[in-house]
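Hey all, quick one. A colleague (J.T.) asked me to put the 3-methyl-2-oxobutanoic acid job into the tracker so the inputs and the structure tokens live in one place instead of scattered across chat threads. No bug as far as I know, just bookkeeping. Sequence used:
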Amino acid sequence: MGTLSAPSIRMRKVRDGADRLVMVTAYDAPSARVVSEAGADLILVGDSLAMVVLGYDDTLQVTVKDMAHHVAAVARTKPAAHIVADLPWMSYHISPSKTVQNAARLIRAGAHSVKLEGGRKRLPMIERICGAEIPVMGHIGLTPQSVHAMGGFKVQARRAEAARRLVQAAKSLAHAGCYAVVLEGVPVQVAAMVTEAVEIPTIGIGAGPHCDGQVLVYHDLVGFEQRLSPKFVRRYADLHTAATEAVRRFSDDVRSGTFPTLDESYHLSEAELAALGVAGI
Ligand code: KIV
């Protein structure tokens, strides 16, 4: 199966009989290999990089340079999955030309499309990026780059008026050219309304089962990230515990002198030992 293109992803509406889209984040070569070999349709090099890999408290700290560095690491593995790169905060807020340059930088690093957060106020930037022939994925609802404006990472569109605005926002993103839209942190009924209202697929995270696809953060899914446990995360493994246990066993073996063994070491040949006048070990 070849890499899914943005136009083929655009067609993936469950109501039209399509299979649900699977998107998982990855930020480096090993995670990209895992996600792609497991058969995900899309790899998102998300700006969640800031929180799950770089140790920041929010996503506002990563730059286009950081994102390009990680997109390139993912792209070098030549995954079968479509690579989406997040445009970080302040990379698409200043001017349309800066926005296009930043999007192009992520495409040149190896992404197949870019994602940006926000509703109607992003339309001019979306049109400009699409005008440069770069496919754009939208992201509405709980938009982590708006953490200060939202007053925290809070579920959005809980009131009828806000739900109607979200539906309108999704429609305008689709109209402006987005090929898909992430719905994050919204009530299940609101996600269903949006999914019903738009012709492009919705990809949910904390948005219930009625979306056209789902996305999770790799480190949450495999249990590397355990400090936070939002209710929408399902952990499919406990790699944090497995990795901690592995490092603990290594430490014990080093301290007790049982690692490495001679079988795990390189040896001089008999001839070289004789030349050195050293007895064999
Ligand atoms: O950066 C990210 O991981 C994301 C997902 C939460 C959709 O944007």
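Adding what we noticed when we looked at it: The longest strand covers residues 136-141. The radius of gyration is 23 Å.
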